[in-house]
Amino acid sequence: MKPAIVAAALALAAAPTSLEAHKPTKTRFTYHRDVLPIFETRCGSCHRQGGVAPMSLLAYKDTFPWAVSIKNQVLSLSMPPWFADERYGAFRHSPSLTASEVNTIVDWCLGGTPEGDPAEARHPGPTVETPRSEPDLVLELPEEFVLAADRAEAVHEVRLEPDLRRERFLRSIEFRPERPNAVRSALVFVVPKGKNVGAPAASWVAGEGAEVWPEGRGVRLPAGASLLVRIHYKKTWLDEGKEIRDRSRVGLYFAKGKAKPIETLVVEARDGVAMYPLTRDVEMLSLLPMVESPIESLIAEALLHDGATVALIGLRRFDPAWPRTYRLEKPMVLRKGTRLRLTLASPDGSSLRAAHQVVLNVAPN
Amino acid sequence: MNLGWLALAWLGAAVGSESAQTQAGEELIWTCPVHREETSANEGLCAQCGRPLARARVTVVWSCPLHALSEPEPGKCRVCGRDLRPVSHEVFFACPMHPEVRELEPGSCPICRMALVSSTSARPHQDHNPKHGGIFFMASDAWHHLEGVYPEDGVFRVHLYDNFSRPLSSKPFKGRAVLKESFDPATRETKELVAYPLLPSRDGSYLEARVPTGSLPREVAAKIQFEKDGPFERFDFVFASLSSSTAVAAPTTGELVVPEDPVAIAAAIVERDRRVQDLLARGGFTEIYVPALEAKDLALALERHVSSSKDPASLAWALKELVRAAWLLDDYGDLGNKEKLLLAYDRFQEAAAQIASSYGVAR
């Protein structure tokens, strides 16, 4: 790290410069004034006391020992775990860092991690999407799930029975972990009465709030339907060797009366490619990549009638440990006959034999 | 700044005052009493050993790359006439009788009551200047440093240093000079085809490999084992000319002037991209940080023009990618690892190309 040498050389007029490195404190950024607001907005929903991350970034004493690790994670695109390339579509509540935010964090990490004055701190708080009311119905796991002391992670599936006698439309499905530091992600499926499988209706990943669907649209919950919840438990190193007990909940938010039903289209790629023709007009609201292994790139595009191509989403260096639904900034109307193209590439250039899916949440247009 | 003057100035300072004051050109930092490379602007614990950090006073002095002489001002070495280079030193007050006494403030020795005298010592990692006219890199353990030298056709030497850039005996180290390799993309394995052992010199001042004579520029990859049974770490050297201890190449830096016009900023980034590419091609890895970090600062200046550009999403992506890649080039340049540098440069170049395209600047 040598930015300081530029300044040093200037201060010393036309003196020859040297190949110096690793200056002591040579950053103009301080934790409280410059770095904490970024951490609060972009990282704070996980990196807080009791959050899913093993260290908080919201207190100076907890943060500065991790400076080298923070720098490496930010430069390698591993953190924040967002992966969506903004050249391919705009999404709500992105924790993605801007150029100056990347620079502020890295410069501070390499420049001696000065604390600064706590009085200069601003507290923007994390930006998390959430329904602005209490849920109409809360369903709790029927019994505690126990992650044994000798297990690091587990996937647990459980059926929840809303016991509804008439059809309802949901404007949001909110997963609420009881133990946020041990629950990594969850998927909620709507399973019609008498069936064993259903369509994925909502997803949740640590640090994220519930998706709130636009006015007049909702997920249809038929009378007698149940919810299948698939929860991924994962301990951090802080909980190694400890037994974890969790009884998470699912909150349901009912839409008033009828709504346009949100449905799922599943585009499945084999050998890394897929082409899916739309048989009706739809309004696309969000996308959920369902990928089991690390992916170098995933690109979904719409090939329109007029020959134009519209990018829907582009993921780079996707880590399946962070499955999330990407919620479009603005719903996108796609006409009948449009073809959806999905292209995936593996990290080492080898062929992708396994099937990979992208689930599109759409409403009829 | 004259260190003698500094000592005099401190004679009037209050002994044992709670808050230390600095003189012009000085900086107060916190550092581990054992691991001096661990520094912080704040009180805390050493990341390596957990000891509480102690205050230290740091200043810049002018030092000869070859001789252990420091001057308060820039100039020439009194012994050999080489240009002096800035090196960071720690300033402290020591007892002439008790070397363990090392105080931040002037005063008297707590053991013998003798007056403490102003002293300096080189701080770790502040001197990456070649001592023998070669190319200077840091190992990934951030403790070992090394300098590759090609003093005459067919002779490749590696001098080893610690984190204070103090010479280490070459005898405990093993290494080889690799001249030719093959890479199999299927297995992603590199095979050495032509390599020569790097053997310690009789006096232990360097490792040396006798390699076939050849034309310049000369590319040699040194693979050095720093710890017994540890991995061999790779350093890529490119010698454009024979190493000469009287001509040490140093990067030229000047004040970065950021143009107002976004097109001119984009053009300046393209120019820095060319310089990075040129340095990569000729092995000037230790200098890459100069154009890379300048390009980064130019990219940051473009950020306020994003919303008025023709494709804001692509430009915003390119700016953040360039900032990330520039920091990586800075990091890997220190380590002299060509493979990592090339991977970081792929990202840098893609971002620079997007910025150029956003503003119609020819590359």
Descriptive overview:
The complex is a heterodimer of chains A (365) and B (363). Chain A has 365 residues and is mostly beta strands. Chain A is 13% helix and 36% strand. A 5-stranded mixed sheet of chain A has the order 1-10-4-7-11, with no helix packed on it. Chain A has a 4-stranded antiparallel sheet with strand order 3-8-5-6, with no helix packed on it. A 4-stranded antiparallel sheet of chain A has the order 12-19-14-17, with no helix packed on it. In chain A, strand 5 (183-191) and strand 6 (199-205) form a beta hairpin. Mean pLDDT of chain A is 88; it is low at 1-24. Helices cover 24% and strands 28% of the residues of chain B. In chain B, the strands form 2 sheets. In chain B, strands 8, 9, 10, 11, 12, 13, 14, 15 and 16 form a 9-stranded antiparallel sheet that branches. In chain B, strands 1, 2, 3, 4, 5, 6 and 7 form a 7-stranded antiparallel sheet that branches. In chain B, helix 4 (312-335) packs antiparallel against helix 5 (338-358). The longest helix of chain B is centred in the last third of the chain and has 24 residues, at 312-335. The radius of gyration of chain B is 24 Å and the shape is globular. Chain B starts with a helix and ends in a 5-residue tail after the last helix. In chain B, 40% of the residues are buried. The model of chain B is unreliable at 1-19 (pLDDT under 50). At the A-B interface, helix 1, helix 4 and helix 5 of A face strand 1, strand 2, strand 5, helix 3 and helix 4 of B.
